[in-house]
Amino acid sequence: MLHGILLIALFACAAFYIGEAQILKDISFSPMIIGIILGMLYANSLRNHLPETWVPGIQFCSKKVLRLGIILYGFRLTFQDIVNVGVAGIVVDVIIVVVTILGGIWIGRLLKMDRDTALLTSVGSGICGAAAVLGAESTIRTQAYKTAVAVATVVIFGTISMFLYPIAYRSGWVDLTPQEMGIYSGATLHEVAHAVGAGNAMGTEISNVSIIVKMIRVMMLVPVLLILGVWAARRNAKDGATAEKGKVNIPWFAVGFLAVIGFNSLNLLPPIFVDAINYVDTFLLTMAMAALGAETSIDKFKKAGAKPFVLAFCLDVWLIVGGYILAKYLAPLCL
After folding, report:
1. Mapping DSSP to helix (H, G, I), strand (E, B) and coil, where does residue 60 land?
2. Could you tell me the residue range of the domain that residue 266 belongs to?
3. Which CA distances in Å does 96 have to 14, 105, 125, 325?
4. Helix H segments across the chain?
5. Cα(45)–Cα(189) distance, rounded to whole angstroms?
6. Cα(186)–Cα(179) distance, rounded to whole angstroms?
7. What is the pLDDT of residues 173-217, one digit of tens each?
8. Fewer CB within 10 Å, N or C, the chain?
């Protein structure tokens, strides 16, 4: 197992090194995204030339290391964030998350998509991109390539939106106040990095609101994962799984994630310690992404077909249009 873990750790180190390139920083391409790309390159080149004894280590990174990374992700959040943004951001976030996930599942059925891929894509679009996809994958326990497909679609359309929002705002295409634009960006951009990148391009006032609203969306990962745990148990029972598999699989890492947020809200650790933990957490999540990529070949992408990208496009249109309407007309009523 150790050889596989060291291999994935090497990929993560390479992802961090490559991520230092200025062009990648400018487009907010995080080491996690680079990690899954490196993993996929490995899966489609050297994967069949290395010992099978390395596979358990790779799978350990895609499961156990991933869950630890999700738990430590809580050090990026505090409950004070909710108070700071007010009711408007919370209401818009809740509507966006619920409609995106349920709407994505419905569209997936219309497209006759694989239900796990549709669910992962919807959760990633609705909450916090790759991190949400990874959390959902750990809860429903599906094949790695479906996770990679969902991450790919979320990253592509999230990156496009990250560039589109500042252009639309500065060009006057969207008639929103800085507060409303911050709510709009935070409630609809896919990744935390996308919200940070777009917010910084539009000014400090917008950026501060955008990041807080985005972090509240991240917190919604906990109830969503708990609901997914119940849903997965019922699905297994309905599909004729064993009684053991039919039991409710409580995602304890989600509970740990919430507990860490609560601890972080007490401000007991010096900022330098929290920054160090967040750096280690990013490394762990990068390892998990690389491990998932290492289980994903081009053939599996072909098997998934174009439908996941069609779904992601539909969800992105909803986020752009629906999010604007909510930020423009609903948010002011709650401010």
Report:
1. helix
2. 2-334
3. 35, 14, 10, 11
4. 2-19, 22-26, 31-43, 55-60, 66-72, 80-110, 115-126, 130-140, 144-170, 178-188, 192-202, 204-219, 221-238, 243-246, 252-265, 271-294, 298-304, 307-325, 331-334
5. 33
6. 11
7. 888 888 889 999 999 998 877 887 788 778 878 887 888 888 888
8. C
